[in-house]
Amino acid sequence: AWGCVRGWAEALTPPLSQREREPVGGEGRVMGGWANRHTPLKPFPLSPIGAEGFTRVRGRSSILSIVDRFVARALRNMHNRRIQLTRERELHMVELGVNIDHVATLREARKGDMPDLIAAAKICELAGAHQITVHLRQDRRHIQDRDVELLSQVLRMRLNLEMAAVDEIIAVAHRLRPHTVCLVPENRQEVTTEGGLDVAGQRDHLKKVVEGMHEHDIKVSMFIDPEIKQVEASAAVGADYVELHTGAYANAVPLDLLHEINRIAEAATCALQSGLVFNAGHGLTVQNLPAIAAIPTLNEVNIGHSIISRAVFIGLDAAVKEILQVLNCYAK
Question: What is the dihedral of CA 282, 288, 289, 292, to 10 degrees?
Fold first, then answer.
């Protein structure tokens, strides 16, 4: 492309004698004062442009000089962008999954169609979230089957389906094939998920569930308490990820915070040694997220209630970006 542009410019630019050709460089003193108003562009090291400097023809810029200047700037911008992308690849940012269950909770309060769950998911996507998480409960108190179907069709990012390991929901997952399913405990009387899944106590059943998901190209995460035995059991049944329950940390009094952080860090180390990817979630906010984000092996956090609550006051887009700003500070 550069050859074509330069050839076109050379064709339109009349030949110049050496006497007529005045390089702009050094002190930049040129007839007409053009170089006094414009700082000469420094030679770009990755291109042949600028080796001879820019030229003027008796007070009039040559077409070739204008093209040189334009293309040199474009190549420099490309070079700087390449450096930026290289640095981003070298640093791993903790990814954000946004749980939008409580958008559906508000909608189901009136059994209507507002707020629009799909619109909420797309706002999160445009704000920079890496994943949308929804929990299809057996009692269908918020997310409905139709929601999961639509999300699987319109999202350009990952869909993470939280679910109990029961036949009804397993069949939905096999049919819709989200990127990931996160197996969680479920109690019809609970307000929210109250603890981690007891993987160690139901290895045989969960191993069959995991195998079935893998047959449908679905990755599996186990939502567990930060306990070594649960991490080891998750590895034993063939899970791909563990999502460590951070509720105890989020609700801890100041004297217990260090203990809870150490529990999570030790479980995260065990996950790494067991070949599992370490995620975290439950009760995380802008205020308490940094201590979790600082754990070196953390891959992803899933946050819902905090983001939706903040969205009431500052908007969903801003609430998502607020969390992403914290995670950016802990790129590894």
Answer: -80
For the cut 80, the answer to whether the pLDDT of residue 290 exceeds it is yes
Whole-number average pLDDT of the chain: 83
Instruction: Please list, residue by residue across 110-147, b when 16 or more beta carbons sit within 10 angstroms of its beta carbon and e when fewer do.
Output: eeeeebebbebbbbbbebbbbbbbbbbbeeeebbbeeb
**Given 22, 95, 125, 162, the catalytic residue:** 162
Q: Residue with structure tokens 């929601």?
A: 147
Tokens of 229: 């035995």
What lies within 8 Å, CB to CB, of 215 at 6+ separation is none
Residue 209 confidence (pLDDT)? 98
This prediction has a pTM of 0.72
For the cut 70, the answer to whether the pLDDT of residue 30 exceeds it is: no
Radius of gyration of the chain (CA): 29
**Lowest-pLDDT range of 65-74, 279-288, 312-321:** 65-74
Contacts of 9 (CB under 8 A, 6+ apart): 63, 64, 66, 67
163 - beta bridge partners?
183
Q: Does 43 have pLDDT greater than 50?
A: no
Which residue in 130, 142, 245, 282 is the catalytic one?
Answer: 282
Q: Distance between alpha carbon 291 and the CA centroid of its chain, in Å?
A: 19
- Which of 241, 181, 248, 176 is closest to 209 using CA atoms? 181
| Residue found under tokens 């998920």 | 193
Mapped onto helix, strand or coil, the DSSP state of residue 222 is: strand
135 is catalytic: yes
- 282 catalytic residue (yes or no): yes
As a whole number of angstroms, the distance between CA 190 and CA 306 comes to 19
The single residue of 95, 125, 130, 135 carrying the catalytic annotation is 135
> Looking at beta carbons, which pairs linking 106-113 to residues 24 or more positions away fall under 8 Å?
107/142, 108/141, 108/142
